[in-house]
């Protein structure tokens, strides 16, 4: 990893850690988040996954429009480090994990929860 890539990664981790801490306090059922990025095209390639404890918690969060809150929180955080995302919904996804088997993550189809 190049030195410039390490700096970008450090900045991304720093702001996403703040997003995670805020979401843990304000979004019921939110557990954690993770990201993937290609450093040659950060704004075009970054993918953030927000993980909830269960599909019912994800459904409740979506009903309360916490997904919109997370979109805006993430977009604002990334823009603070000069990563401007035009359509944040293309870069953020939601998953849930079964609370009884946290080591096994399952993808939730958000469209089924609406």
Structure notes:
It comes from Shewanella nanhaiensis. This is Fis family transcriptional regulator. The chain is α+β, with helices and mostly antiparallel strands and 114 residues long. 48% of the residues lie in helices and 18% in strands. The chain has helices at 3-26, 42-45, 55-63, 66-79, 110-113; strands spanning 30-36, 47-52, 92-97, 105-106. A four-stranded mixed β-sheet has the order 1-2-3-4. Helix 1 (3-26) runs antiparallel to helix 4.
SSE map:
Blueprint: H1 3-26, E1 30-36, H2 42-45, E2 47-52, H3 55-63, H4 66-79, E3 92-97, E4 105-106, H5 110-113
Parallel strand pairs: 2-3
Antiparallel strand pairs: 1-2, 3-4
Helix pairs in contact: 1-4
Strand content: 15-25%
- Radius of gyration, in Å, reads 14 Å
Proportion of residues in helical segments: 40-55%
The averaged pLDDT comes out at: 88
Lateral strand order in the biggest sheet: 1-2-3-4
Strand count = 4
**Elements, N to C (H/E):** HEHEHHEEH
Protein name: Fis family transcriptional regulator
Organism: Shewanella nanhaiensis
Features:
114 residues, alpha+beta, four-stranded mixed beta sheet, elongated, disordered C terminus, Fis family transcriptional regulator
Provide a concise account of the structure shown:
This protein is α+β, with helices and mostly antiparallel strands and 114 residues long. The protein has five helices and four strands.
């Amino acid at each position: 990893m190049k030195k410039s890539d390490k700096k970008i990664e450090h900045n991304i981790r720093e702001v996403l850690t703040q997003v995670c801490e805020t979401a843990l306090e304000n979004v019921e059922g939110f557990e954690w988040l993770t990201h993937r990025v290609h450093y040659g095209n950060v704004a075009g390639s970054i993918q953030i996954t927000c993980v909830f404890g269960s599909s019912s918690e994800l459904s409740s969060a979506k009903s309360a429009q916490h997904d919109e809150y997370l979109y805006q929180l993430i977009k604002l955080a990334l823009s603070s480090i000069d990563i401007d995302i035009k359509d944040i919904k293309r870069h953020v996804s939601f998953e849930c994990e079964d609370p009884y088997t946290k080591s096994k993550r399952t993808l939730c189809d958000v469209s089924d929860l609406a």
